[in-house]
Write a structure and sequence with these properties.
207 residues, 5 strands, 51% helix
Length: 207
């Protein structure tokens, strides 16, 4: 996703503006790493666009620069500092980068981090949800939970399905989403099938 889409959302929808940093050395480091800093009344967002898996794997060096920023920003921003990583990866690179993406989003050092593949991913950032300025509650539908609950729920209501039915059911849950999102979930499907295959084989023998 082009980071300009994120910046447009920040500036037009949430009143962010570019943060002017007096420290020229830090400005140079930020610019060299392609990092841009945005603030509103209460939060600070750092944005960067990643165009390859190799570039994404180097995110730790970006975090080092952001740690210098953390030391300089006013105290009200220190616990409200976010790093928004917009990625432009083809499906092969995206799939191969899943472990890196998980590592990034689970890392809580210095700032909160969100890897954004589509504009809808901004809904995962609480302060950037389209409902955050309206007071309405918003929760993304948990496709994985619904899929697992439907497949592995009560035995009386949920007979054993053939593996081809597993795939059809999974894609039915995702067919309202963008095609790229469906494709990115295929690895999860494979994992679920592999984990459950042994369980069903044992249950068939016991029955």
């Amino acid at each position: 996703m082009n980071k300009n889409l994120i910046i447009e959302r920040l500036t037009k929808n949430f009143n962010y503006e570019e943060y002017n940093i007096d420290d020229q050395k830090l400005n140079v480091m930020l610019r060299d790493r392609g990092l841009e800093v945005w603030i509103n009344d209460s939060r600070c967002m750092v944005t960067k666009e990643f165009n390859s898996a190799i570039q994404l794997e180097d995110w730790h060096n970006d975090q080092i620069i952001i740690s210098f920023l953390h030391d300089l920003i006013p105290s009200k921003f220190k616990n409200n500092l976010y790093f928004l990583l917009s990625i432009n990866l083809d499906q092969t690179e995206f799939t191969s980068s899943m472990s890196t993406i998980n590592e990034i989003e689970k890392d809580s050092k210095v700032c909160r981090k969100y890897v954004l593949k589509t504009l809808s991913d901004l809904q995962r950032v609480p302060s950037l949800s389209e409902f955050s300025n309206t007071g309405e509650s918003y929760e993304l539908f948990d496709f994985d939970k619904a899929f697992k609950d439907h497949l592995f729920g009560d035995e009386d209501d949920n007979p054993i399905l053939e593996f081809s039915d597993f795939i059809d059911l999974y894609l039915n849950y995702y067919n309202v989403e963008e095609e790229t999102i469906v494709e990115s979930k295929n690895e999860i499907l494979k994992k679920i099938i592999n984990e459950r295959a042994g369980y069903y084989e044992i249950r068939k023998v016991n029955n």
